[in-house]
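Amino Acid Chain and Its Fold in Token Form
===========================================
Purpose: to set a sequence beside its fold so the mapping can be learned.
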Amino acid sequence: MLAPWAIEEMKSVQLGDKRLNERLVEVLSQLGARPTMSVPAACGGAAETAAAYRFFANERTTFENVLQPHVEATRRRIAERDKVLLVQDTTEIDLTRPEKQVAGAGPLDEGPRRGVFLHPLHAFTPDGTPLGTVHAMAWARDDAPPPSKSEREHRRKHTPIEEKESHRWVETLCHAREEAQRAPQTQFVCIADSEADIYELLVESQAEPHRPDFIVRACQDRALADDENSLENAGPSDDSANLLRDQVLTREVLFTHTIKVRGRQAKVACDKRGRRQPRKSRSAKVEVRAATLTLRPPWRHDRKLPPVTVNVVLVREIDPPADDVPVEWILLTSLSIDDVEAVRTVIQYYCVRWMIEVFFRTLKSGCRVESRRFEHLDRLLPCLAVYLIVTWRTLFVCRLGREFPDTSCEAVFEPSEWKAVYYVVHQQPPPANPPTLKDMIRLVGQLGGYVNRPRDDEPGPQTVWLGLQRTHDMALCWETFGPGAPKHEVLV
């Protein structure tokens, strides 16, 4: 049974062969219905499994080609919105195997782990509803002996940004500008975590035309431009300028707010970086300041960079516990900070960045993409593209009930789906009118272990993806054996 949503999502597919186009819709329907299962279990038969693996092995089904119809569908959803947040981030896809490794996978670090890196640009509404991926790149590092410390430092200072892996942040920002050009009626805000705190990215954010706004969490305390003389004479070891953080701390406190801090454990005991230290769960009171500052360009061996003026928002914990790491965000942005509400908006938009972490978790835990058994990376990558679409669909359904709670559930679910789920959960015939989207998602969540109590939060991704699997099976039974199903003769 082909999923209607998969047919709609893939309607612009162009793989160069009608049979491949149809197979992509079928594979997406099968894997989307049972995301936690293996490919053979999701396909449901030997012939279907063989067809799926042949599809992934075809030279036309590349990562980019499989993802492209989803990108086009995402652009259609974006065109309906006034404001869209484009979040970019990188995650590891760990493909380490105990014996024979995946051919084409590369090292993830200096240890034995092997896999690929995934860097998507995903669109969200300001309240966190995922709209889809508009750009993504996946790559494996080369097998090369790790450089010495001195060689690594020399490469860092003398390799052009275009030849560095970190250039992906700048390149993805350029793709965000292309999306802004396609939908000039929509306001775009490109958001990234501290790994994107690269001066070249800040320079690129000033480029015209159709430049999107941006928010980047600062990773380092940058020097400020004092005057023209300091800009001319700045060198690789010139530390004479004022520092950004000190300047923002001189500004008045705009407002305070109490937030809930989630605890965390250190992944590596020897890692001394502040953001990698363990933290206790607690309520923290933070103060917020803002300023407009001009950054002094850093030294580069191959070019002279211009100064960049940015707005800065500092969120800082007041009186943190003596034995814990204080909360502090320094956000660099092009968005307005003219008043308190504008500053609150910057912080609110940055908080949506966390949804990309939920996206990655769903991709790995819900779709189990790291456990897929492929011998060659070229065959795994198109499968990864399919699961990127499945992951979006899961989160989209999960969040849509929060954005449009009173909409009829038939905007997302087929009659056979909601009727079967309603019958199983409530143990009574379904009503004449379909339930609301909010109620239906709670019913689906119950199939995945969600406890439906009036004051509880809405179902999370895990209970939804488990519930959607059961929903698919129940709908199939409803269409086969339920009211209105074709009558079958009983063979004796």
Q: What stands out?
A: Residues 228-233, 237-241 have pLDDT under 50 and may be disordered.
